[in-house]
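Extended Data, panel c. Modelled sequence:
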Amino acid sequence: MRSPWTCVLWDVDGTVVDASDGILRRLTTTLEHFGYPAPTRAELVHWIGPPMFESFQVNLGMTPEQSTDAVAYYRALSKADGYTTGARLFDGIGELIADLDSAGIPQATASSKPENQVIALMEHFALSPHLRAITGATPDERTLSAKADIVAEALRRLRAVGVDTSRPVLIGDRHHDVDGGAANDVPVIFVRWGFSWPHESEGAQATVDDVASLRGLLLAPTE
C-alpha cells in the first residue's frame, strides 16, 4: 500500500477516540460545582474539541481567572476518574492507524487535550507503537493549546526524528482543526462522526462520513 501523504496527523477527541461519556459526567460535576446548570448531551458539541480553558469562557462567560479554576477542577476530576474511563475507539480507526504504520506512513497526534491524557489514551488503546510523536496541549492549556501551535509542534517533532513532512495531512472533526491546519499549510480531511456542526467542514480538502472512505484517501493499493 502507498499513500499520497508523507505523514498523517490525528486529532484525538471526536476523531480517534469517543470520550463523550466521561466528558459529560465530569462537565456536569464541574458546572454544578461552579453554580451552572448541567450540560445536555446535545450541548457537548460546544465542549468537545476546543481547549477547555477557552470553552469555559466562550460557553459560560467566565473570566480567564475563573476559567483557570474551572479547568483545574475539571482536570482533578479527570485524574481521579482515570483518563481512559469510558473512552472507546471509533470503529475501524485503530486498524487504519495500524495499517498506515505497516505501510510505512509516519503518524502523530495533534490534539488539544493535555498531552499526558493523550499519551494515556494512546497507550490504553495500544496505538503508541504506531505513532512517531504524541503531541497534545500543555497541562495548563494556555502555554500550548491553540490548534495551529499544536499542529506546528507535531510537525516539528516529526522532523526531529527524520520524518518527511513535505506532504502532511491532518484528520479532524472541528473547525479548529481546519483553521489550525490552514495556519500551517496542512490540508485537512474532515470526519463527520465526531461532534461538529455541518458548516465546520468548510475549508477542508475533503469530508468523509465513515472510516472506509477515510482509508481510501489515506491508502491506495500499489500498482
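The first strand starts at residue 7 and ends at 10. This feature is highlighted in the accompanying rendering.
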